[in-house]
TrEMBL record:
It comes from Crossiella cryophila. SUPFAM superfamilies: PLP-dependent transferases (SSF53383). Homodimer. It is found in: Cytoplasm. (6S)-5,6,7,8-tetrahydrofolate binds at residues 122, 126-128. The record marks 230 as: Plays an important role in substrate specificity. InterPro entries: PyrdxlP-dep_Trfase (IPR015424), PyrdxlP-dep_Trfase_major (IPR015421), PyrdxlP-dep_Trfase_small (IPR015422), Ser_HO-MeTrfase (IPR001085), Ser_HO-MeTrfase-like (IPR049943), Ser_HO-MeTrfase_PLP_BS (IPR019798), SHMT-like_dom (IPR039429). This is Serine hydroxymethyltransferase. The gene is glyA.
Length: 423
C-alpha cells in the first residue's frame, strides 16, 4: 500500500487512486534505471503532499506581495540555507519550477536575444536548453555548439577553446543529460575566463554525486550553477540556482518576476527535507555506491559485448551504442521495459539514425542503488539486459516475460520508500 496512505483519494476518486497504486507497484517490481529518475524518501513524499500547496507566496522571504507568510518564509529560508551549506555557495534560489526554467532564468539574467551563447550539442550529450535549435534558447539566441571526440566519446576541450575564442559567447554551458564522464570544471572555467564569458555549470544529473563527494564540484569555477532537485539528489521534482554573490541579484530577478509567479511551497519544503538528508553521512555512502554500481554494471555490460560511449562511466550514467547488437535503441528499450528493466532510448554521438529512432540506450544506477542493490547484483542486471536485447532481436516474447518475472522476484527483496505490497 501507498505510504503516506491514500484513503481520501481512494474514496473521492477511486479510478485515479487505482492508477497511483498501480504505478507504485510498477515502480516496486521493475529495475528503474532511467538516469534522471530515483526514489524519494517517505519524508519527502509527506512534505510534497502537505497543506503548503494551498499557499501563494510571490516574492522572496521578507519581501512578499501577499500576506500570511509568517511560516512560509522560514521554510524557504531553511531550504536556501541548507542548499548554501551543502554546496558551499554564496547564494541559492530554490524557487525554479524545474530544470528548464532554471536554465532560462540564466539567459534572462545575463544575455539578450541574439547574443552568442555556447553549449554542448544535444546529440553529444547536451541539454535542449543549452542552445539546441528546437529549443527557445536556440531560437532566441545565436547558439554555437561543441561536441565530443569521435575516437573517445569525451568532450573535446581543444574544440571548446577554439570555438570560444572564435565566437566570444556571453554564456558557456557545461554539463548535460548524457555525459558518462567527469566534467572538467577547471578547464571550462579557464576558457570562459579567457573570453570573458560567464560559465554556467548544469549539474542536474550529478548534483547528488557532488553533494556526496563522488564527483568534483563546480563551485569556485562556475559563477552560476543550475540543477534539478531530483535525479541523484533524491528530492522532489524542482530546481535550484546556485551562484557567487556577484550574480545573485540578477538571477533572483530573472526567476521572479522575470519568469515565474509564486513558488510551489510544498515543493520548497520537500527540497528542504531532501537537502537535509543529503547533508548526512548515509547520503555520502549512497553517492559513492551509485558510482560503484555504475562502474560495475559498465564492466559487466562490456564483457557481454555492449559498446559503451567513452568506454565506461565515472558517474551514475551509462550510454550504450547497440549497433553491434543489430538492434536500434527504441525497440531495445521497449523490450527491456517489458522485461522489467526501465531505461530510455537515446542518441549517441555521431549517430547515423534519427533522434526518435536512435542507436543507443541510456541508463543509470541512482534508483536501483536507493533500493539497496549493490555491486554484487550488477552482473545479473547485465545478464538480464543482454538476454532481453537478444530476445528483442528474435521476437522471443516468452524469454522477455521470463526475465520480467526474475526481475520482480529479485526486487521483492528490496524495500521501496513510499510503497509496499499488501500481504
Amino acid at each position: 500500500m501507498h505510504q503516506p496512505a491514500l484513503p481520501h483519494l481512494s474514496q473521492a476518486d477511486p479510478v485515479l487512486a487505482e492508477l497511483v497504486q498501480a504505478e507504485a507497484g510498477r515502480q516496486f517490481d521493475k529495475l528503474r534505471m532511467i538516469a534522471s529518475e530515483n526514489y524519494v524518501s517517505e519524508a519527502v513524499l509527506e512534505a510534497t503532499g502537505t497543506v503548503l500547496t494551498n499557499k501563494y507566496s510571490e516574492g522572496y522571504a521578507g519581501r512578499r506581495y501577499y500576506e500570511g507568510q509568517q511560516l512560509i518564509d522560514p521554510i524557504e529560508t531553511m531550504a536556501v540555507d541548507r542548499a548554501k551549506a551543502l554546496f558551499g555557495v554564496d547564494h541559492a534560489n530554490v524557487q525554479p519550477y524545474s530544470g528548464s526554467p532554471a536554465n532560462l532564468a540564466v539567459y534572462l539574467a545575463f544575455a539578450s536575444p541574439g547574443d552568442t551563447v555556447m553549449g554542448m550539442a544535444l546529440p553529444s550529450g547536451g541539454h535542449l536548453t543549452h542552445g539546441w535549435s528546437v529549443s527557445a534558447t536556440g531560437k532566441w539566441f545565436r547558439s554555437v555548439q561543441y561536441g565530443v571526440r569521435k575516437e573517445t566519446g569525451v568532450v573535446d576541450m581543444d574544440q571548446v577553446r577554439d570555438l570560444a575564442r572564435a565566437e566570444r559567447p556571453k554564456l558557456i554551458f557545461c554539463g548535460g543529460t548524457a555525459i558518462p564522464r567527469t566534467i572538467d570544471f577547471p578547464a571550462f572555467a579557464e576558457i570562459a575566463g579567457e573570453v570573458g564569458a560567464i560559465l554556467v555549470a548544469d549539474i542536474a544529473h550529478i548534483a547528488g554525486l557532488i553533494a556526496g563527494g563522488a564527483h568534483p564540484s563546480p563551485v569556485g569555477h562556475a559563477q552560476v550553477i543550475t540543477t534539478t532537485t531530483h535525479k541523484t539528489l533524491r528530492g522532489p521534482r524542482g530546481a535550484m540556482l546556485l551562484s557567487d554573490a556577484e550574480h545573485a541579484k540578477a538571477l533572483d530577478k530573472a526567476v521572479f518576476p522575470g519568469l515565474q509567479g509564486g513558488p510551489h511551497n510544498h515543493t520548497t519544503a520537500a527540497i528542504a527535507v531532501a537537502l537535509g538528508e543529503a547533508s548526512g553521512p548515509a547520503f555520502r555512502d549512497y553517492a559513492h555506491a551509485v558510482v560503484a554500481n555504475a562502474k560495475a554494471l559498465a564492466a559487466a555490460l562490456t564483457e557481454r559485448g555492449f559498446e559503451l560511449v567513452s568506454g565506461g562511466t565515472d558517474n551514475h550514467l551509462i550510454l550504450a551504442d547497440l549497433t553491434s547488437k543489430g538492434i536500434g535503441g527504441k525497440p531495445a528499450a521497449k523490450a527491456l521495459d517489458r522485461a522489467g528493466v526501465e531505461l530510455n532510448y537515446n542518441t549517441v554521438p555521431f549517430d547515423p539514425r534519427k533522434p526518435f529512432d536512435p542507436s543507443g540506450i541510456r541508463l543509470g544506477t541512482a534508483g536501483i542503488t536507493t533500493r539497496g542493490l549493490g555491486v554484487a547484483e550488477m552482473p545479473r542486471v547485465a545478464e538480464w539486459m543482454d538476454r532481453a536485447v537478444t530476445a528483442a532481436g528474435t521476437g522471443d516474447e516468452q524469454a522477455i516475460e521470463a526475465i520480467a518475472a526474475e526481475v520482480a522476484e529479485l526486487m521483492a527483496g528490496y524495500p521501496m520508500p513510499g510503497w509496499a505490497p499488501q500481504v
